[in-house]
C-alpha cells in the first residue's frame, strides 16, 4: 500500500466517494497549496456522534482549477482563470474530483491547517457478476425515477448510470445520490469487497425507494379515511383511535395473530430435513420476523419468504412406479407410434429400478407441431407415478423468470422452478420445458437461456440457488423434459446438456389409427353426441387426411373431425326438439364434403408433370417433410438465367453446379445449332428455373439432383416420371452426396402418393428409421452418380445412350 502525507479538509458530516465530482465551499482557500492545474487534498468527515472526532477513512480529492462548469459558475470572481486572486475570498467554491480512498495513520495540526499521514486502500475483491452489475444499474435508475425524478438533472444522472463502465465508480456514484445517514455512507466507503459493497448499495437504494412508496401510500390512505370521517361527522369531537385506524386500513393491531403463524413456521421449520446451513439461514430470517412489528415495511416481505421456504418439498418425494410392463401399457394407451421415445422411457425406468436413481437424464423432444410432444410429457409422468408440471418458455425474455427476483425488489417472487416444486409438493416431479427453442433474449433483462444452463446441468443443479431464496435447492431428482420445433435455434451450450430425440411427422396409416383410437372419441364426447349415433368409416377418415389436412401432426385433423361432429350435433339437436328419432349417422365422403366443403388439396402431380422440365424433389421443414416441385423453361435469348421462388444462396449455388455439370458432360444438349461445333449454346438460350410456393423461403443443397433432372428433361424434351421424387446434393463431378432429414422427407412424399424415391447411396442406412408399413408401399432407389438418377427418373432411358455417343469420355 502507498503511503503519503497530505493536507486534510474537514467536511463535517458529508461523505464523498471516489469517482464523483463535488463542489465544496471553503472559508479560506489560501490555507491550501495551489498546483498548476490540480491540487491533491484529503477529505475527511466527522463522526455523527462526535463533531470533534474524525472517521479513520476518507477520500483523496483533486482540486480542479480549470473545471468547465466552475468557470461558468464563478465567472464573476474570475477564480478559475486566476485562482490566487480569490484565495482570500470568504466561502469560495471549488470543484474537486474523488481519486482514491485512504486510511489515516496519524494526524497533526500545524497552525490553522491539519496534516495527516495516510495509506491508500484498494478493493480486496474486484470480481462481480454481470447479473449483479445489471441489478446495480436497475436499482440506481429505479431510485432516481421514484425518489429523485423531480431533480432537474435526473436525466443526466440516469444517462451517467447507463454509460459508466467502471463498476466501482458506478456504485460510488449511486451511493452519493442516496438519502441515507452519514454512518451508512461511511460504511459503504469503508467496504473494500466490491461484490459485498455492490449488494449493500443495491439494498439501500431499493429500501429507500420502498419506504418512500409505502409512506406515500399510507399518507394517501389516511387522508382518504380522514375525509370520509369528516363527511360522516361534520363536527368531530375527536379523531378515531389507533385500533380504528388499523381496522379501516385493513390491518390488525400488532400482536393479535402474529405469534400464531410464527409458532407454526417454527414447527414446520424444525420438522424439515433440509441442509443445516439452509435451515440456519431461514431460522435467522424467522428471528428477524419475531423482532419486527407488523407495521414494519420488511415484515410482510420476510413473512412471505419464510412461508415459501417452509412449504418447499425439501424431503417429500413421490414413489416411482418401476413396473415396466405397466409403463409400456400406459404409453401405448396414450400415444400411437413414437416407438423410439417409448423405448427410451422404458430404458430410463429399467435403469432406475436397478440403480435406485437416474440423475442427469434430460430429454428434448424435437419435431413439427401437433405430433404429441407436450402431451407425451404428461403420459411419461403418469407412467412413472410422478407429479407433472409444464413451464411454457415461448417468448420468455426475463432471466428473473428462471432465477427469481432478489428480495430487495418490491413485489419480488421466486422463479418458475421453485414455484413448480411448491405447487407439485414433491421434489421429484416431471417438469416439461415447453417450446425451449423460442426463449427470448433482452439485453436489459438478461438471457433466460443462459440461466437454464445451471438448471439443466446434472453436475450443477443439485445446488441450484434461486435469487429470491438465497439458499440452494437440489433439482437433480427432477426429470426434465423439453420440447422444440427446431434444434438449431437452441444455444449450443444448452443443447449440449440435453439428449435430443427427434419426432417425425405421422404417416397416413398412423394418422388413421390415431383418429380411430383417440380423436374421434374425444371430439364425439366434447360435442355432446352419443357414440351410438355416429360412425366414422376408414374411407371418410382417409379422405379427411389426404384432401383436407396435409400436415405432419394431427391438430388440423382433430379440428376437421370436430367440425363434422358439430355438424351432426346440429342435426341431432333439431331432431330432439321436433321429437323425432335420430338414426345413426354414417360419415360418408359425401357428408364430409357437405360439412367441410370442397377438398383443399388434390393430387395433381401427374397433371403437373405432363410437360418436360418438371421434377419432384423433397424438402424438410420445421412443420414436417413435404414435396417440392421444380419447374424449368427455355426460350431464345442471350443466355440469361432467371431464378424465382425466394431461394437462399446455397440453393442458387446448386443451380449453378447443375448447369456447369450439364455443360461439361453433355455439350450437344446445350447447342442452339446442331451444325455448330461450339459448346456455347447456353449463351443463346434464356433459362428460367422456378420453385412454386414462391412466398415460402427455400434453401439447402438437397435439391441438387432434382434441379439437374428438371434441366435435362427440359433440354431433351423427355418427361420425368410422376410417381418418383428425389433428394440429394450434386457435386461438380456428378456425384450424389448425402442429405439430412430423410425420414421426414419420405413421410411427406408418402402422404402425397409418391411410390418411388431416389436417395443417395450413403443415406441407405437411414431407411431403417422409416416405419415398416411406409417402406412396404415405397420403392427406394439408392444412387451414387447423377447418371443413375437420370436413368431412374426419366421416362425414356434411351436418351442416355445418345448422350454418351455425343460425349465418348462420359
Automatic annotation (TrEMBL):
InterPro entries recorded: AAA+_ATPase, ATPase_AAA_core, Lon_bac/euk-typ, Lon_lid, Lon_proteolytic, Lon_Prtase, Lon_prtase_N, P-loop_NTPase
Q: Which PROSITE patterns match?
A: LON_PROTEOLYTIC, LON_SER
Q: Which residues form the Lon proteolytic domain?
A: 609-796
Q: Which GO terms describe its molecular function?
A: ATP binding; ATP hydrolysis activity; ATP-dependent peptidase activity; serine-type endopeptidase activity
| Entry keyword set | ATP-binding, Cytoplasm, Hydrolase, Nucleotide-binding, Protease, Serine protease, Stress response
Domain of life of the source: Eukaryota
Please give the biological process terms from Gene Ontology that the record holds. protein catabolic process; proteolysis
Q: What positions does the entry give for ATP binding?
A: 367-374
Taking the record's annotation, the residue ranges forming a coiled coil are none
Q: What is its EC number?
A: 3.4.21.-
The active site of this protein is located at 702, 745
Q: What enzyme class is recorded for this protein?
A: hydrolase
- UniProt similarity note: Belongs to the peptidase S16 family.
Q: What is this protein called?
A: Lon protease homolog
Q: What is the lineage of its organism?
A: Eukaryota, Sar, Alveolata, Ciliophora, Postciliodesmatophora
Amino acid at each position: 500500500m502507498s503511503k503519503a502525507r497530505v493536507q486534510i479538509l474537514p467536511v463535517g458530516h458529508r461523505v464523498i466517494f471516489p469517482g464523483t465530482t463535488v463542489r465544496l465551499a471553503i472559508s479560506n482557500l489560501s490555507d491550501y497549496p495551489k498546483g498548476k492545474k490540480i491540487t491533491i487534498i484529503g477529505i475527511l468527515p466527522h463522526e455523527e456522534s462526535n463533531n470533534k472526532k474524525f472517521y479513520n477513512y476518507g477520500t483523496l480529492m483533486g482540486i480542479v482549477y480549470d473545471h468547465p462548469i466552475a468557470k461558468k459558475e464563478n465567472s464573476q470572481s474570475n477564480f478559475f482563470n486566476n485562482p490566487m486572486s480569490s484565495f482570500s475570498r470568504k466561502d469560495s467554491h471549488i470543484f474537486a474530483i474523488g481519486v482514491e480512498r485512504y486510511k489515516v495513520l496519524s494526524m497533526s495540526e500545524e497552525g490553522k491547517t491539519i496534516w495527516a499521514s495516510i495509506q491508500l486502500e484498494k478493493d480486496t475483491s474486484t470480481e462481480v457478476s454481470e447479473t449483479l452489475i445489471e441489478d446495480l444499474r436497475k436499482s440506481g435508475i429505479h431510485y432516481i425515477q421514484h425518489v429523485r425524478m423531480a431533480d432537474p438533472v435526473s436525466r443526466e444522472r440516469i444517462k451517467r448510470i447507463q454509460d459508466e463502465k467502471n463498476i466501482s465508480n458506478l456504485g460510488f456514484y449511486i451511493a452519493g445520490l442516496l438519502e441515507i445517514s452519514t454512518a451508512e455512507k461511511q460504511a459503504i466507503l469503508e467496504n473494500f469487497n466490491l461484490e459485498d459493497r455492490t449488494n449493500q448499495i443495491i439494498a439501500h437504494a431499493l429500501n429507500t425507494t420502498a419506504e418512500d412508496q409505502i409512506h406515500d401510500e399510507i399518507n394517501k390512505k389516511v387522508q382518504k379515511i380522514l375525509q370520509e370521517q369528516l363527511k360522516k361527522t361534520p363536527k368531530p369531537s375527536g379523531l378515531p383511535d389507533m385500533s380504528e385506524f388499523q381496522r379501516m386500513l385493513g390491518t390488525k393491531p400488532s400482536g393479535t395473530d402474529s405469534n400464531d403463524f410464527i409458532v407454526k413456521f417454527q414447527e414446520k421449520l424444525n420438522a424439515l430435513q433440509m441442509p443445516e446451513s439452509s435451515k440456519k439461514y431461514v431460522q435467522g430470517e424467522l428471528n428477524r420476523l419475531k423482532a419486527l412489528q407488523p407495521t414494519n415495511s420488511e415484515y410482510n416481505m420476510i413473512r412471505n419468504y419464510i412461508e415459501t421456504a417452509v412449504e418447499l418439498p425439501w424431503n417429500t418425494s413421490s414413489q416411482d412406479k418401476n413396473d415396466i410392463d405397466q409403463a409400456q401399457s400406459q404409453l401405448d394407451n396414450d400415444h400411437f407410434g413414437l416407438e423410439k421415445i417409448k423405448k427410451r422411457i422404458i430404458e430410463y425406468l429399467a435403469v432406475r429400478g436397478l440403480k435406485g436413481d437416474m440423475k442427469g437424464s434430460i430429454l428434448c423432444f424435437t419435431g413439427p407441431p401437433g405430433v404429441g410432444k407436450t402431451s407425451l410429457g404428461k403420459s411419461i409422468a403418469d407412467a412413472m407415478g410422478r407429479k407433472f408440471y409444464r413451464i411454457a418458455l415461448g417468448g420468455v425474455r426475463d432471466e428473473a423468470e428462471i432465477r427469481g427476483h432478489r428480495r430487495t425488489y418490491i413485489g419480488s417472487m421466486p422463479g418458475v422452478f421453485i414455484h413448480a416444486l411448491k405447487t407439485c409438493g414433491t421434489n421429484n416431479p416431471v417438469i416439461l420445458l415447453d417450446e425451449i427453442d423460442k426463449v427470448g433474449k433482452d439485453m436489459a433483462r438478461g438471457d433466460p437461456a443462459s440461466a437454464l444452463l445451471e438448471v439443466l446441468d446434472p453436475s450443477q443443479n443439485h445446488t441450484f440457488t434461486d435469487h429470491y431464496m438465497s439458499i440452494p435447492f437440489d433439482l437433480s431428482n427432477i426429470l426434465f423434459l423439453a420440447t422444440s420445433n427446431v434444434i438449431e435455434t437452441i444455444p449450443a451450450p444448452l443443447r449440449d446438456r440435453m439428449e435430443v430425440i427427434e419426432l417425425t411427422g405421422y404417416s397416413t396409416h398412423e394418422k388413421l389409427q390415431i383418429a380411430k383410437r383417440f380423436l374421434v372419441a374425444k371430439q364425439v364426447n366434447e360435442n355432446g353426441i352419443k357414440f351410438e349415433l355416429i360412425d366414422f368409416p376408414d374411407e371418410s377418415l382417409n379422405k379427411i387426411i389426404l384432401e383436407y389436412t396435409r400436415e405432419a401432426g394431427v391438430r388440423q385433423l382433430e379440428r376437421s373431425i370436430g367440425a363434422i361432429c358439430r355438424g351432426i350435433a346440429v342435426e341431432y339437436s333439431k331432431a330432439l326438439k321436433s321429437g323425432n328419432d335420430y338414426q345413426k349417422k354414417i360419415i360418408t365422403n359425401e357428408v364430409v364434403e357437405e360439412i367441410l366443403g370442397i377438398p383443399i388439396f388434390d393430387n395433381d402431380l401427374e397433371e403437373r408433370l405432363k410437360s418436360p422440365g418438371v421434377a419432384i424433389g423433397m424438402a424438410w421443414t420445421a412443420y414436417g417433410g413435404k414435396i417440392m416441385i421444380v419447374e424449368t423453361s427455355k426460350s431464345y435469348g442471350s443466355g440469361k438465367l432467371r431464378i424465382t421462388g425466394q431461394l437462399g444462396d446455397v440453393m442458387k449455388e446448386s443451380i449453378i453446379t447443375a448447369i456447369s455439370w450439364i455443360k461439361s458432360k453433355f455439350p450437344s444438349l446445350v447447342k442452339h445449332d446442331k451444325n455448330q461445333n461450339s459448346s456455347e449454346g447456353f449463351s443463346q438460350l434464356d433459362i428460367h428455373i422456378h420453385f412454386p410456393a414462391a412466398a415460402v423461403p427455400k434453401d439447402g443443397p438437397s435439391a441438387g439432383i432434382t434441379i439437374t433432372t428438371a434441366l435435362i428433361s427440359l433440354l431433351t424434351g423427355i418427361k420425368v416420371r410422376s410417381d418418383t421424387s428425389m433428394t440429394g446434393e450434386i457435386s461438380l463431378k456428378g456425384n450424389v452426396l448425402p442429405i439430412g432429414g430423410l425420414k421426414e422427407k419420405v413421410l411427406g412424399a408418402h402422404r402425397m402418393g409418391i411410390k418411388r424415391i431416389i436417395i443417395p447411396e450413403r443415406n441407405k442406412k437411414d431407411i431403417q428409421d422409416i416405419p415398416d408399413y411406409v417402406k412396404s408401399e415405397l420403392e427406394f432407389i439408392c444412387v451414387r452418380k447423377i447418371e443413375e438418377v437420370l436413368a431412374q427418373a426419366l421416362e425414356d432411358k434411351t436418351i442416355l445412350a445418345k448422350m454418351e455417343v455425343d460425349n465418348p469420355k462420359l
